[in-house]
Amino acid sequence: MDSLLLLTILIVFFALAFDFINGFHDTANAIATSVSTKALPPKIAIVMAASMNFIGAITFTGVAKTITKDIVDPFAIENGSIVILAALLSAIAWNLITWYFGIPSSSSHALIGSIAGAAISAAGFGILNYNGFIKILEALILSPFLALGIGFLMMSLFKVLFRNSSLYKTNKGFRTFQIFTAALQSFTHGTNDAQKAMGIITMALIAGEFTTSTDIPLWVRIAAATAMGIGTSIGGWKIIKTVGGKIMKIRPINGAAADLSSALIIFGATYIHLPVSTTHVISSAIMGVGSAQRVKGVKWGVARKIVLTWIITLPISAALAALIYQIINLFF
């Protein structure tokens, strides 16, 4: 078999594996609050999340196009297929490590850092599309702060609107409302996160000279959406425990406020074709909601551990991808 075709097949396989892992790694983010408040039983929450992730994934392609062309130029890079394969293997390895330890790390940071690291290893720093890469980094950095602020404002608004309501009735009503917010959260997750594997596969098709367009083929959209849906159906219980309970004690009104805040940020990013970390956004929204409720109620020690993981993910995944590229390059 031609080595370029073999590399392309491997990339498609590992890209779908990345989406599958992303599904069970990030399922927790979308449904953690609704499960922790018992708004939804875990099995029903996961089935709903899988379905809404699939629908969201096949609805949009803007983020996929950004991944395809804004980090490096897929038409200019030599050994593009090896670069992409190395990036995928690095991102998958980091996702599995953080999942094993129950740390809500960012699949987006891992993938984007890995693409940059592998590309630099192949062709030097000049290969990066700095305008696009900086725009992506800005979105990744700013989105958690926006989620923190909007979560704080959303919870503050709810406190004013429901200050005269009984706590029991308020929580009962919001527990039902959380079914909608969890579905919305899962849909927006699909609109952004599943796009990343679509962009990677399209980069591989360009590198292998199987296409000359950055448009996302229909089969790529369906395959990536399906992989994420199946991964979501498996679930990520370790991360559910961290996001759903270790950051703060979540009640239905808190969970609904966090879900709405993070869904707003994620869908806003999808609308302007920018990838963001759904993990970062959702965790930050929970912290913002908790701060509006009671600053001391947020377990900032756990939050610091999460933030540290956010910071180290991009450079570690970049270095790992650079190393993997050099190893693969020896064989091809």
Automatic annotation (TrEMBL):
Q: Where in the cell is it found?
A: Membrane
Q: Any idea what this protein is called?
A: Inorganic phosphate transporter
A Pfam family recorded for this sequence: PHO4
Q: Which domain of life is it from?
A: Bacteria
Parts of the chain that traverse the membrane? 44-64, 76-97, 109-128, 140-162, 218-240, 252-272, 307-328
What are the protein's UniProt keywords? Membrane, Transmembrane, Transmembrane helix, Transport
Q: How does this protein lie in the membrane? A: Multi-pass membrane protein
Q: Which InterPro entries match?
A: Phos_transporter
| GO terms for cellular component | membrane
Q: Using the record for this protein, list the coiled-coil segments as residue ranges, or answer none.
A: none
